[in-house]
Amino acid sequence: MKKFLGVVSLLAFASVALAADAPMQKASLYKRLGGYDAVAAVCDDFIGRLATDKQIAPFLAGHSQDSLKKLRQNLVDLVCQATGGPCYYTGRDMKTAHAGMGVTEAQWDSAVADLVASLDHFKVGQTEKDELLGAVSSFKKDIVEKQAMK
């Protein structure tokens, strides 16, 4: 019995030591941003900024309230999914959704500045901000149709 308790104690000690040496798993960007409510709040603020941005507002003009609600939910779901959250984006791919809109490099840059302002408004940390902007930048090639003249 004493030998058995010694082996159990040794195994318990070893498992604690191994657990202490294991690298800590980094929480998903979604969790570090604050979860669904935080993602939705940033998206709402971002949409508000887009609606008043002279370069972007024309793209939102003329939409029904229902269309704007769908756009908002698609944005929340897209950001939620892209950051490792439990949401599932069911909207069209970015190339299809933006085809024919003629989005320019300058308009893209303006929208990114609006997103940065929203993230700053909610005091999102630099690491999380950089990760989110990195994820968003992957959509640029599918959204921008008119590159800046070089």
| CATH fold field value | Globin-like
**Count of DSSP strands:** 0
Q: Main β-sheet: number of strands, strand sense, barrel status?
A: none
- List low-pLDDT spans: 1-22
Secondary-structure element pattern, one letter each: HHHHHHHHH
Count of individual domains: 1
Tell me, what's the shape?
A: globular
Overall pLDDT score = 87
Structural class: mainly alpha
Strand coverage percent: under 5%
Distance between the termini: 81 Å
Helix-strand layout with pairing:
Elements lengths: L1 H20 L7 H5 L2 H17 L4 H4 L4 H18 L11 H5 L6 H17 L4 H12 L2 H4 L7
What does this entry look like structurally?
- The protein is mainly α and 150 residues long.
- The protein has one domain (28-143): Globin-like, CATH 1.10.490.
- 68% of the residues lie in helices and 0% in strands.
- The longest helix has 20 residues, at 2-21.
- The protein is globular.
- Residues 1-22 have low confidence and may be disordered.
